[in-house]
């Protein structure tokens, strides 16, 4: 044993395999990883943007030619249905964000501050309804909204959009309020505030950062939603996702026009991804 | 009912309006007989509860009723046919041998690949390097892109004549694959689109989990000169298990109802070979115009995912108990 140390032999430092392969191999590996990730996640978006800037005849010979044009966007915006769809999607997304947050903020507060049979029952309910696939209740809604005379109107799309978020948002809101110390509200109650006043004036302002994050996500999810719009709307209320899906099946060859529409529909997502990152990350915490 | 109010135990009946005006109607007097805390919690619950009843519970009940009837266009009587539609679905070879395996396979592939990739990316983002902000932005992007748009991108990229993948494969000397006219290549594209869309979600949640882990076990492992891989398998993974379990359960439940990607990429084709459960219910209702059969299929699916979700939750729970 001591002989080994006497010879002055030191075992080679147990470095990583990559460092052994080449000096700086680890950094190169990390760089390659980063490059791969960028390629995997950004390339489809990049390619779509590129296609949307190509003239119609250039789309099919991507690897030749370098002409770029904005005429695809102009051509798409001349179609009334696309413009209508953008307006409708914007209105529905905005209204549904406002109302679904307004509706769930109280039930989330209730879940966070009260215990007992009622809170347990509500928690169980939202747990079960979170599991039920959308199609199970949107299929019958096709007839229900027709009976109520709100099929293919703003109302007929808005109300289900509010309902769909109830389960998940109540749960997230509970999380926001759980992070707030309830002793402030007790103090407000002792000072003569009503329970409603304690909720609106004390608890709600503290929960605002979380709610703001959630509102961004809610807006995007409604903007991106497809199944509800497909089933619950027809010609009177075109939504942008449905219009795009129709493009794919109807004019399946004009990829330059489809890409231009898709890029415009992606603008809100790009804005949020670049400027609203930290809100999104905060809002997603389960 | 609501027994304990954490915030205001010390102010019993302080803000409670007494019930002198409440004797008018039976319902109203019942309302005022409840104690003040219960009334308040019911009021808080009311908006969500009413929306949930009107737009989820009522439609589900109507759908359940319809699924026992002959709801086709030529039968205005809506004849009661009992379990006929359920029997049809549970013996339909399309449902048993295509739709159900497709749905479960998509669920398995998407969740397992997403989890592994998400874990890797969370580790990447958990360290500092030049361009960290750029990489994080790029990884977050798919989370905000509409599934419909993402599916269009995939269709265009994998277009078998003019797609960029076909061009690259041509240049490399491989033959071209008719991606969307065969079952497994189209299924692979669906899985790819789903992974592309949902890996960022795994990444964000797992990154938050990684950052909240305590430092001490890592210091102990460093003192013991554990290799990086051993630290990962013996320190990180066991501590990450709870959040991974939550991710798996939520994502599996959501993946079961996938509609957008499949609808835009293949529409269930070629020849119904990539149909998943939501597409099957939609097709039965709106393409074959058999609304009752569609709702029956939707209810069968809800029961399956309910049972599956519960079993998954129990399994993961037990798995975590044992390993703790």
Automatic annotation (TrEMBL), chain A:
Could you tell me which CDD domains the record lists for this protein?
TM_PBP2
Gene Ontology CC annotations of this record: plasma membrane
Gene Ontology annotations of biological process type: transmembrane transport
Q: Which residues cross the membrane?
A: 28-50, 85-109, 121-143, 155-177, 198-222, 228-248, 255-276
Residue span, ABC transmembrane type-1 domain: 86-276
Keyword terms: Cell membrane, Membrane, Sugar transport, Transmembrane, Transmembrane helix, Transport
Membrane topology per the entry is: Multi-pass membrane protein
Q: What is its main location?
A: membrane
The reply to whether Membrane figures as a keyword in the UniProt entry is: yes
Where is this gene product found? Cell membrane
Listed InterPro entries = BP-dep_ABC_trans_perm, MetI-like, MetI-like_sf
Matches recorded under Pfam families:
BPD_transp_1
| The organism's place on the tree of life at top rank | Bacteria
Q: What does this protein do?
A: Part of the ABC transporter complex MalEFGK involved in maltose/maltodextrin import. Probably responsible for the translocation of the substrate across the membrane.
Q: Which family does it belong to?
A: Belongs to the binding-protein-dependent transport system permease family. MalFG subfamily.
Identify this protein by name.
Answer: Maltose/maltodextrin transport system permease protein MalG
Q: What is the lineage of its organism?
A: Bacteria, Pseudomonadati, Pseudomonadota, Alphaproteobacteria, Rhodospirillales
UniProtKB/TrEMBL annotation, chain B:
Q: Topologically, how does it sit relative to the membrane?
A: Multi-pass membrane protein
The UniProt entry's sequence similarity note says: Belongs to the binding-protein-dependent transport system permease family.
Q: Where are the transmembrane segments?
A: 40-62, 95-123, 129-150, 162-181, 187-210, 291-313
Top-rank taxon, per record = Bacteria
For this protein, the record's InterPro entries field holds: MetI-like, MetI-like_sf
- For the keyword Aminoacyl-tRNA synthetase, the answer is no
In this chain the ABC transmembrane type-1 domain maps to: 100-312
Which UniProt key words apply to this protein? Answer: Cell membrane, Membrane, Transmembrane, Transmembrane helix, Transport
Per UniProt, what is one Pfam family of this protein? Answer: BPD_transp_1
Which GO terms of the cellular component aspect does the record hold?
plasma membrane
Subcellular location(s) per record: Cell membrane
Entry's Gene Ontology BP terms? transmembrane transport
Question: Gene3D superfamilies from the xrefs?
Answer: MetI-like (1.10.3720.10)
List, as start-end ranges, the regions of compositional bias called Low complexity: 8-22
Q: State what protein this is by name.
A: ABC transporter permease
Q: Give me the ranges of the annotated region Disordered.
A: 1-22
